[in-house]
Predict the structure.
Amino acid sequence: MREILEILEKDARTTPEEIAKMLKKSVAAVKSAIKKYEKQGVIVKYKTVINSDILKDDAQKVRALIEVRVAPQRGHGFDHIAERVYRFPEVKSCYLLSGSYDLLLVVEGRDIQEVSSFVSERLATIDNVNSTVTHFILKRYKADGDILKRIERNNRIAISF
Amino acid sequence: MKISKAVEKMKPSGIREFFDLVIGMKDVISLGVGEPDFVTPWNICESAIFALEKGYTSYTSNKGLYELRFAISRYLKNKFSLSYDPDKNMLITTGVSEAVDLVLRAVLNRGDRILIQDPSYVSYEPVSELAGGKVILVKTGEASDFKLTPELLKKYISKSKNIKAILINYPTNPTGVSYSRKELLALSKIFVKNDLLVISDEIYDELTYDFEHTPLATLPGMKQRTVYLNGFSKAFAMTGWRVGYACGPEEIISAMTKIHQYTMLCAPIMGQLGAIEGLRGSIRSVAEMKREYKRRREFIVSRLNQIGLTCRRPEGTFYVFASIKTTGMTSAEFAKKLLFKEKVAVVPGTAFGSQGEGYIRIAYASSMDNLKEAALRIEHFLKLIT
């Protein structure tokens, strides 16, 4: 039933009925497998991939990658401080990395000021955050496996043997 | 201008007019294509771009780049325990289509008899005739699930003496039929017993869903009488690159090479370099595509049967051969009306031989969204006409 995940990852709108047909399983079996994945947290949620860059209006967003150096805490390692950081809704992604800094964040805001003030007022002032480096994102080409450019028209000829 | 008799005799493709209609129409959902809807895996494209930048734009040796022949020989050895010497038993061609033409011209004398299944891929019959062969069509239908069987072959072989060769294609375009090892063993015994040369077009081998594909050449007594044809078009989604290959007895391969060196010279170098990269780094992409095709197969077979176009579950390819007999229309009528009323393009079964009457070929090499929408439109169409 792992293949269900592959199908839903491609298109979350695929119905249990359709999946059942594709995998030659019963609808009930597919539904219960999906339930199980949801319960286990394997399926976290169902979302839509939006390319707001095309909207060219207020809905456009400014994004920055932020390298954060932190001092780990006894008994908690990095987890505690990471949670302090990722609970901010401005933080869209948060990773712990090996190498010269510790946390990598993707932060989103309406404009540069909003992101800057988040970094200087919220993030940098947290205890144990030693330093931050902010890289504003100039253009997104591909995000989470999806190429954001509009798909080119299929140029196969419509009929062939 | 007077055209040669041989070409004048060639049957014009009966559905040319239908093709032109499809191509002239907008917003058509096409289930009529004979190629993958995936684009070539990026590592293959990227390596070809690099090769162009490096200046690899020349001819290659007639037989094809040694590196590619070597890579193919290793691939066949690993996958099927099928060993061919890259120097003696292998020729790189401009797609399997060229290989079919070459082998037929290399082995057939005027009037030599060759068995070809009806229905089958469009080029086999005319190209055999162009090479001087006398084609004997083995008519198959629902009675044998559109399969060649030992009984059928025996019947045709006993009817006409002195058959030299058989051209077989599996998994089969247009029916999607393929054969298990056991079925092939039974067929191969007939081939050996009647001393037939076997031309085996196995271009869809990677798209076999329910069992492992068995090349005929791996069966007892078959390698010395089989010309194995395959290529990169379907499995690696490389149709436009035009790279195929033929493996077989040295004598036949060298005869084919003789013609190839005067006519084609060599397969395009970019395609050959892309193919090398395909064998090196795209096996995972192939497996992914196959899983996706398999899901689409299950979906479309189940939907078509649900809405009343009965079809068997094909073992391979990306085709379904669905019966339209309940509508009372001919294949050509059905395809034309479906195109006009619902803007869904399929290929009438008669394009592949007279045995295709009453059927349409539906290619599921199309996105799942397209398949869903097309199934709805066909369902609507069927309600409209009954």
